Amino acid sequence: MNVLEAVQRARESGDFSPLVEAIPYLTFLGVRVEVRDGRRVGVMPFADHLVGNPTVPALHGGTLAALLESMAHLECLASTDTKQLPRTITQTVDFLRSGRTRETYAVARVLKAGRRVTTLHVVAFQDDEAQPIATATVHLKVG
Amino acid sequence: MADEPVDLEMMNAAFRDFVPHNKALQLTLVAATWNPPQVTLKLPWDARLVGNPETQVLHGGAITTLLDACCGASVYVKLKSPQPIATLDLRVDFLGRAPAHRDVFAKAECYRVTQSVAFVRASAWVDDEAEPFAAATATFALSTQGRAITQDEVRKGLVP
Q1: What is the pLDDT of residues B21-58, one digit of tens each?
Q2: Could you say which residues from 29 to 58 on chain A have a Cβ atom under 8 Å away from some Cβ of chain B?
Q3: Is residue B15 less than 8 Å (CB to CB) from chain A?
Q4: B147 at the A interface (CB within 8 A)?
Q5: Which of B38, B44, B54, B76 has a C-alpha 20 to 30 A away from that of B109?
């Protein structure tokens, strides 16, 4: 199954596993997508190779940025009818709290779906969604 | 200290070998100067980091991680003394895309520090530094949680 077929299947069935599994980097990070309360949630279980600061210890900021960007892409594919894979134009990440050595979640929301550019806001959190550890604004080229 | 060249072996021992995610990505410092406070990192091509299996282009997340790590390393050469830092914000502009099956390089310069914040700009390229495919700006909070890894620990290879 190619990536666009996996996108189509995810849109029809709500099952993002084939799409996520088709992307090697998401497998490397250990990211999966679950549907919870009707929302698509990116889940990144803790793993030793995700640590950026062993003295806290804390997750590498890059792993959080990657989770946020990945969920922006997946949410864009899931909730808009873009015919091509989105490409990131620019991404701005704010790191609010250190990522602890536990499971991390991310939820993306489309702010504007345009013909050429779609903009999303993504929030990453661990125990408490009201206490986000990182957020991102992502502009995607979709046409 | 500022007159001596940066000890790349020592810096790699701290940046790569003590930072599990940098090690997982095989990030390596290939150049660094105290003045200007610049560092250059290499991200070797790795099929595990592909974001689009059809084009084999690396995932943006791997590029963002490279730029974040590179920006952070430049803060260390600017400060000259190791202390814990944390990224406050990071903006990455994707000017193009990196070709498949090629090593990626990034260079960062920490152009200003205050008592509590460091300001950094960086870019990433494949063939020609003058033609970057990604550009970044970042700010870092200084003296944050955790502690600096000491040179003794690096020499002895002690993992905290």
Answers
A1: 999 999 999 999 999 999 999 999 999 999 998 899 99
A2: 29, 48-58
A3: no
A4: yes
A5: B44
CA A74 to chain centre: 7
In this predicted structure, the answer to whether residue B12 has a pLDDT above a threshold of 50 is yes
Q: At what angle do helices A61-79 and A3-13 cross, to 10 degrees?
A: 70
How many independent structural domains does chain A possess? 1
Please state, in angstroms and rounded to a whole number, the distance separating the CA atoms of residues B91 and B138. Answer: 6
* ipTM, two decimals: 0.95
pTM higher than 0.90 for the full model? yes
Domain that holds residue A72: 3-141
CATH number, domain at A21?
A: 3.10.129.10
Report yes or no: B157 at the A interface, CB cutoff 8 Å. no
- What are residue A59's phi and psi, to 5 degrees? -65, 150
* Strand ranges inside A17-75, DSSP E: 32-36, 39-44, 51-53, 58-59
Which chain B residues are Cβ-neighbours of A85 within 8 angstroms? 52
Cβ-Cβ contacts under 8 Å, B90 against chain A: 61, 65, 92-93, 95
Residue A32: strand pairing partners: A43
Q: Which tens digits make up the pLDDT trace of A53-87?
A: 888 899 999 999 999 999 999 999 998 888 888 99
Locate the DSSP E strands across chain B: 28-33, 38-43, 50-52, 57-58, 85-94, 104-113, 117-125, 134-142
